[in-house]
Amino acid sequence: MAPGAGRFAPSPSADLHIGNLRTAVLAWLFARSSGRRFLMRVDDLDDRTDADIARRQLDDLAAIGLTWDGAEWQSENPQRYDAVVDELASRDLLYECYCSRKDIAQAPRAPHAPQGAYPGTCRDLTDAERETRRAETSRPPAMRLRTDAIVHTVHDLLHGDYTGTVDDFVVRRGDGVAAYNLAVVVDDAAQGVDQVVRGDDLLPSSPRQAYLTRMLGYPEPTYAHVALVLNEDGARLAKRDGAVTLAEIGVERALGQIASSLGYTAMTVEQMLTEFTASDLPRHPWIYRPD
Ligand code: GLU
């Protein structure tokens, strides 16, 4: 059987910080220790992304010793996403949504509606109501998946069973570009990714993605959401926390910090591979103190 693949999928909106580098190392360790290929995917569908930042991110990942078997840029594959949006539309699973963020925030909700779930405003409009909304709204509509606001459970190697809401999430943005949750699912399937290792800030997105994966008939990947790095105040690491990027820290020190955060004595990622046991990974966030 051909080996599957793991991947790292940075969003090139800022240079990688030590926490992102550590997540990348872990994704690489999970893949390599299980005989999988390792792929890079540049998640550059967002307007805030930048090709120069993407190149620096890949350079940094290579500089710390990661190797990969291919790299893709999401912006190069619009037809891949369009084909899936067309398929979902032909199965009558999509509807146009004219809501702004403010409309969604202000919409009345059922008393037990899950926090943050789309309230369904545009879900059951008649054709005439759609015409009116289209005429009233200057923005082109986004496309949402009809899901019935269900819950879905994924199994995570580090968190166990995780159940989260699957609301009618956006699959194509108003600007016609694939939304994150659709792109990630379609790319993972197209690239043969069967192991998703990423920061645990994305754990709440995984039920939506697993649900869409199932609807599209793709095999569900294994998930491992690794603990994030926090600053000494318990907040997400940011520029103001001092030396956080590879350019500021230096390769050797960064590798030393990553290794010690995992309880390893290794100095290279290849050496970390000999010490890596997925089930022994720390479950709590790593509090980063620049040294
Ligand atoms: N590009 C996303 C991020 O950097 C991660 C996507 C994923 O791993 O599924 O937050």
Write the layout of secondary structure elements.
Layout: E1 5-8, H1 18-33, E2 37-42, H2 51-63, E3 71-73, H3 78-90, E4 94-97, H4 101-106, H5 127-136, E5 142-145, E6 150-156, E7 160-166, E8 170-172, H6 180-190, E9 193-199, H7 206-215, E10 222-226, E11 229-230, H8 246-249, H9 251-261, H10 269-275, E12 286-287
Parallel strand pairs: 1-2, 1-9, 2-3, 9-10, 11-12
Antiparallel strand pairs: 4-5, 5-8, 6-7
Helix pairs in contact: 1-10, 6-7
Bound molecules: glutamic acid (GLU).
Describe what you observe in this structure.
With 291 residues, the chain is of the alpha/beta class. Helix content is 35%, strand content 19%. It has 10 helices and 12 strands. It has a 5-stranded parallel beta sheet with strand order 3-2-1-9-10. Strand 9, helix 7 and strand 10 form a beta-alpha-beta unit. The longest helix is centred in the first third of the chain and has 16 residues. The mean pLDDT is 94. The structure holds glutamic acid. The site of glutamic acid has 7 residues, from loops.
Brief summary:
The protein has 291 residues and is of the alpha/beta class. It has helices spanning 18-33, 51-63, 78-90, 101-106, 127-136, 180-190, 206-215, 246-249, 251-261, 269-275, and strands at 5-8, 37-42, 71-73, 94-97, 142-145, 150-156, 160-166, 170-172, 193-199, 222-226, 229-230, 286-287. Helix 1 packs across helix 10.
